[in-house]
Amino acid sequence: MSGALQDLSGLDRVIHEPARLMLVALLSSVESADFLFLLKESGLTKGNLSVHLSRLEEAGYLRVDKTFHGKIPHTEYSLTAKGKTAFTEYRKKLDPIIRRNPRAAKI
Amino acid sequence: MNVQIDTALKRARGYWFVDGFTEMAAGGLFVILAEILLFSESVTQAPFLSWFLSVTSEIVVAKLIGILAAILILWWLKDHFTYPRTGFVRGKRVTATQVLAVIRNAILFLFLPILALLAASLLIASARNVLASMPAWFPFGLGLIWGGAYLLAGEWIGLRRFRLLAVMMMLAGIAIGVWQFMMGLPTFSSDTQLGNFQPIGLETINRTLLSLGFLILISGVILMISGLVTFLRYRKENPTPYAEES
Fold first, then answer.
1. Which of A44, B64, B126, B180 has the most crowded Cβ, counting Cβ within 10 A?
2. Phi and psi angles of residue B124, each rounded to the nearest 5 degrees, phi first
3. Rounded to the nearest 10 degrees, how much is the dihedral formed by the CA atoms of B61, B66, B68, B74?
């Protein structure tokens, strides 16, 4: 197995999936965001988004806070400390791979 | 899916500016501050301190009320217009340490050089000339600083229109500086003492405030126009609040 492939195999599989990577990246630069923001920014369908959010929550990377705005339910998503650390580690592992192979920069 | 992490990060950071409301509010605040500077009484020889305190207190009150009003208006507008269309985002919490660091850097960056120059001007003849030319270089330098700040902010949040704003603010600063230079600059007499503002020194202060007032006014108008264009585009792209598909 080449060095690049070994590096890739060490990446966090939960975050490495493109849709989840997008969601984690979006949430990493804010305190929290609601479902509609993530839906609009990610371009995913509602069903797909729900599945990926659930997967992140199961992994302990995502915190879900359900509140009410008047009578309207409002759900906010934020990264947990574990999720933030996982994303930082993922980027640290990914950077050298991208540097060695610039064509991989567009992931 | 072609995920670009940095793009996603910047998009989330720049969400606060997605609807143009923030620029319109900031621009409006700038225009009010410029009005205070441009329409306040000119500095006079005798009651310099009372004049200084009067203008400073007006600006501080206008800033505090303006910022508070802008926050409340922005909060209401976003709650009723933006969040139902493109979702809600809670920005990163700003810590007290970060706020203090920003204030410290602003003082170091803006005020200390000016204070040092004022002090030096009382002792060194060439510094007096530099101080006398303040109506020209002050807006020039401030325009460059603001432009630089907008460029950096634009890169940080991935908004291309901030590059245009940066260029316009730099050009405004340069234009005002050139205009003041073309008018002819006042010169300090050699016997200027601390606390004893000669008419020529007062002219320097008045003209610098005039330059500053115009720069703030132009910047405010630029921000309001940019905000309005952004708002119209946002409204066109998101005409109605998001509704559940039936």
1. B180
2. -115, 130
3. 180
Do B231 and B24 touch, CB atoms closer than 8 A?
A: yes
- pLDDT, tens digit, 9 for 90 and up, residues A5-33: 556 667 888 998 989 999 999 999 899 99
Return the number of CB contacts < 8 Å for A and B: 81
Least confident of A42-46, B168-172, B203-207: B203-207
Q: How big is the CA angle at B95 (ends B92 and B100), to the nearest 5 degrees? A: 130
Cross-chain CB nearest to A21 (options B3, B83, B92):
B3
**Does residue B243 belong to any structural domain of this protein?**
no
How many domains, in total, are found in chain B? Answer: 1
Asked if the Cβ–Cβ distance from B92 to A29 is below 8 Å, we say: yes
Specify the pLDDT at position A51: 96
Q: Is residue B59 part of a domain?
A: yes
Instruction: Give the CA-trace dihedral at B162, B168, B171, B177, to 10 degrees.
Output: -100
CATH of the domain at A60: 1.10.10.10
In angstroms, the separation between the Cα of residue A18 and the nearest Cα of chain B is 6
Asked if B87 lies within 8 A of A34 by C-beta distance, the reply is: yes
Touching check for B1 and chain A: CB below 8 Å? yes
Contacts of A29 in chain B (CB under 8 A): 9-10, 12-13, 92
Range of the structural domain that residue B152 is part of: 5-237
Substitution target in A21, A22, A63 with the highest count of B β-carbons within 10 Å is A22
pLDDT 10s digits, B155-178: 988 899 999 999 999 999 999 999
Q: Is residue B242 part of a domain?
A: no
Within 8 A of B15 by CB-CB distance, chain A residues are: 30, 37
Count: domains in chain A:
1
Model confidence at B236, in pLDDT bands (50, 70, 90)? very high
Is A75 in a helix, a strand, or coil? Answer: strand
3-class DSSP state of B213 = helix
Q: Greatest CA span in chain A, whole angstroms?
A: 57
Structural domain includes residue B186: yes
